[in-house]
Design a protein that fits this description.
The complex is a heterodimer. By secondary structure, chain A is of the alpha+beta class. Helices cover 18% and strands 26% of the residues of chain A. Chain A has three helices and ten strands, in the order αααββββββββββ. In chain A, a hairpin with a 2-residue loop joins strand 2 and strand 3. The longest helix of chain A is centred in the N-terminal third of the chain and has 27 residues. The relative contact order of chain A is 0.18. The mean pLDDT of chain B is 93. Chain B has one helix and twelve strands, in the order H-E-E-E-E-E-E-E-E-E-E-E-E. By secondary structure, chain B is an alpha+beta fold. Chain B has two domains: 30 residues; 150 residues, Immunoglobulin-like (Sandwich). The chains are: A alpha+beta, B alpha+beta.
């Protein structure tokens, strides 16, 4: 192994033992460490926060951009409707279904059904199945149809299809515990809206 | 002269020893590979409700059987462990299906069977339990030990899982067991 040459020239011969001596003439006048490294310090002060920001933004972007997740709610008041991506949704009607005859619903649970009128506009609109969220707890429910014995019915769609150009109504039944009290959010997330979705307040 | 000897001979050895001891201590205190991703375990017992992050499970019965059947008419012979259970989601139904169902016996891990109609992969409902059965086909030499049943959602990395100890040797073999039909817990 070769030992590299020292970066700074060695002190003149004869003064080797007195290196670091407090009386060394250069140390009194040489600029301070901060001054000598000011370029590096300034660059670090810029690059360190920039790195933190870039890594954070990259992860946020991978997680939430591209419309991968609904992150940006538009809150719609009760009895109100809202427009998104050229389609109009609402006002939402909702009810607790009292007559459960013929439906497979266990004791200790109730069925909440919401109807969302959709005016798809001239181009049509696609959306996912709505979800239900309890405002007080954040507990979330997905649509339940086959589980309670309500088969698919083209007149009561559960999601929006871009092929449908006339007005129609989404029918969204949810099975929730009997003691879960409203108000709830009914979330409708149309396609091509990025992370923006409609959040209807309902209290059946 | 003496200080030169100390500097050139003693200091390197002392440093070497210190580094070796330090390395040994780090190896000793370091957790095994993958432990940073281990799930959070909740222990369960028979007929008692156990809850993890987004999963609530009650194991209602455990059988050993020489044959299993389901309500669709499927049946299979073998040495089967059948678990009857109720399960629900706790927070959200998104991603909430019972995908992780394994039985660890000794250093072997068995997955719940995908044959027949079982509760494996069943979607769970927030706060409203559904019920069904899981089945494990085990080799004969596994029945002398105890097993650990592990239940969780799709990806147990850093999520909550529910574990229950089952003494396989204590289970009496039944001739045939029917898998519970998947449906609401009654």
């Amino acid at each position: 192994m070769t030992i590299p040459e020292p970066l700074f020239p060695a002190p003149p011969a004869g003064s080797a033992d007195s290196a670091g001596d407090a009386t060394h003439p250069a140390s009194a006048k040489s600029p301070s460490w901060w001054r000598r490294n000011r370029l590096g310090l300034v660059v670090s002060a810029v690059l360190l926060p920039a790195t933190v920001f870039a890594v954070g933004w990259e992860n946020w972007h991978l997680m939430y951009d591209f419309g991968a997740r609904p992150v940006d709610p538009i809150i719609v008041a009760e009895d109100d409707s809202a427009e998104l991506v050229g389609a109009s949704f609402g006002p939402v009607r909702s009810a607790v279904i009292e007559d459960l005859s013929g439906l497979d619903v266990p004791d200790g649970a109730k069925v909440i059904a919401a109807a969302v009128p959709v005016d798809p506009g001239p181009k049509g609109v696609s959306c996912r199945r709505p979800t239900l969220t309890q405002q007080s707890s954040g507990r979330q429910w997905a649509l339940m149809r086959s589980e309670i014995g309500v088969p698919y019915n083209p007149d009561e769609p559960e999601f929006c299809s871009a092929d449908e150009l006339g007005d129609y109504e989404l029918i969204a039944p949810f099975v929730i515990p009997e003691d879960a009290e409203g108000p709830f959010w009914l979330d409708v997330w149309p396609q091509d809206s990025g992370g923006t979705f409609l959040r209807f307040s309902i209290d059946p | 002269m003496m200080s030169g000897v100390v500097r050139s001979k003693v200091v390197p050895w002392v440093l070497t020893a210190a580094l070796l001891v330090g390395a040994w201590a780090i190896v000793k205190v370091t957790l095994p590979v993958g432990s940073a991703q281990e799930p959070f375990v909740t222990a369960a017992t028979l007929d008692e409700t156990a809850s993890a992050r987004n999963l609530v499970v009650t194991v209602t019965d455990v059988h050993a059987a020489r044959a299993v059947t389901d309500d669709a008419g499927w049946s299979a012979d073998g040495a089967w462990l059948v678990i009857d259970l109720d399960a629900a989601a706790q927070v959200t139904q998104q991603g909430a299906s019972l995908r992780t169902a394994t039985l660890v016996v000794g250093n072997r891990t068995f997955s719940a069977t995908e044959r027949g109609t079982t509760f494996l992969d069943q979607a769970l409902v927030t706060g409203v339990p559904r019920s069904g059965s899981l089945a494990f086909q085990l080799p004969d030499d596994a029945w002398t030990e105890h097993g650990t049943l592990r239940l969780g959602l799709a990806n147990p990395v850093l999520d909550g899982v529910i574990e229950m100890r089952i003494d396989l040797a204590d289970l009496p073999f039944e001739r045939e067991v029917s898998l519970q039909e998947n449906g609401w817990a009654r």
